[in-house]
Every structure is written in structure tokens, then in C-alpha cells.
Write a structure and sequence with these properties.
Length: about 325
Amino acid sequence: VRRVAPRLGPGAEFDRIRAIFAGLGPAGRGLGDDAGLVRVGSVTLAASVDLSLEGVHFRTGWLSFRDIGRRAASAALSDLAATGARPLAVLVSVGLPPRPRRVRGDPAAEIMAGVGRAALAVGAHVIGGDVARSRHYLVDVCVLGVARRPVRRRGARRGDGVWVTGSLGGAGRALAALRAGARPRGALWRRFARPEPRVTAGRWLAAHGARAMIDISDGLVADAGHIAAASSVAIELDLGLVPCWPGVPPRVAAASGEEYELLAVMPVRFGVREARAFRRATGLPLTRVGRCRSGSGLRVTDQGEPVSPPRGFDHFAP
Ligand SMILES: [Mg+2]
């Protein structure tokens, strides 16, 4: 039997995506990477769509409309970054409740100004969209780019190193503060409200031999699980190696979602010298957090001892 459905890690959300793949049957093609990849002549077009919903992904009391748009677009662009693509264009569908009386300006224009800001920051432009009345605010962002050497989730091999850009846990810490009624400030606030899609980093890693990549939206552990499943390898993560946001414990950092850093699987020859070159090129640290082994699934260790994997975010977790 030919395997049609791509492989994802465990979880209720991914069970639903598996069911969708099965329902699509032969209509689906090349599913399961951060962006869909379509060969057009001599270039590969990378396309992705990302939905941000009021009450699920953001609250209007937490973020300005401008930051809501900017963050939604950055999340979508992060998926392009994970394939090593260069962003070109953005299209947006916006769901809008009736215009609020006490708000100055139109939230729709504010949201789109934020989208435009995120697009320009990576050299892309807004080329179209749609609006509809809605009970809640909704921002659905479609991004298009081109990749010279597209990177998928499925190329990891036994012995390869598992690397992470930047540091993890800041977005989760800010979200926890907001949920507790506090208002995070400074760098922590920016980390949550204005994530920067790692486009330059993704292109650099793709050009330097990345075998597999994914952006950290579900949490390091869950996203490493997707790479392991797609590549038919086991991934061993060492919690002690995880680069953490100041004050965030490794277990929490490894489960934190919406971090929008990249997890990249690099060949065994890629080492600290190459990681230093990456830092010079991008301004970001690159840290090895584990290694691919033969087998399947995820093994998490802490100081050499196996521990249970911390859980990431799942939209449909019971
Ligand atoms: Mg992704």
C-alpha cells in the first residue's frame, strides 16, 4: 500500500490532521511540511497559511490591533522560514465584528498595517485579501515565497545533530504572565507581541546543508516529534542543553509553544565552528540540543537520565 498520509507526531490535534489527510486521499500532495512546496519551472514556490483567532491565539485586551496583525503575519512567515524560503508576498482574510464605537481608527486598517510591517521586515509585500463580518476577530494569513533548496521535515538521518536558534520559553513566560493578569514588559513583551520570523536563519541553514527543519510553534518537544515521525528516526533531546529564556526552567522552555525559533537537523560534520559562523551571519545563537538515532519517537534526557517528555500545545487535547 502506498503511503499517502505524511507522518506527524502524537496528539489529538495531529489525529485530526491525519483524518483530514485521509479524507483528501489522492487530492492531497506533498502535505505535512511547514509550507507546501510546488515546483514551477526552475524555482520552488513555498506557500503556507496560518489562522489567528480571537480568544484562541490572541485577546484584544492583550495586544493592539496593529500587533495582532503583525503577530499573525509573523507566525505565517515563520513557516516559510522553516523551509528555507525567501518570502515574496502575503494575502490576508480578515474577519471583523461591527466597528467598535469607542476605538479611534478602523481595527481592520490597524490589523493590516501590522501585517504590512511584518511583510516589509522580511522583504515581502501584501498583494491581496478579503474581509467578512464575523463574531470574533480573525486573521488568516497566506504567505508565498521561493526556495532555492527547500528543506522539508523528512530528511533527518541517524547521527545528525538537532539544533535550535535563539532561546526558548520567553513567549510562554509572557503568556503565563498575561493569563495571570500581569503585563509583561520590555524584551519579554516584545518576545510575545512581536516575534521575528527567522527568515535569514532559515535561508542560511538551508544553504549550509540542513536536512530537516520545522519552526517551534507547538513546543520544542512536540515539533521534534514531528521531525522524528516524518524522517523515521528517533530523536534524543537533552534538556540540559536547551537554550532557555532567562529564568525559565528547561522543562518549561522545551514545552513552550509559539516561540517561532527554528529547529534544524544538521549533518554530523556541522559543529560549534559552523554555529559561530551562523551567529556572525544572523546575530542569533545556534545550540545543539540533541541527536538523531535509529528507531522512532522522542527520548528526553536530563543529566543523562531518561525523563518523561514535557507536553507542548495541542488545540484538541482532551
Ligand atoms: Mg510550523
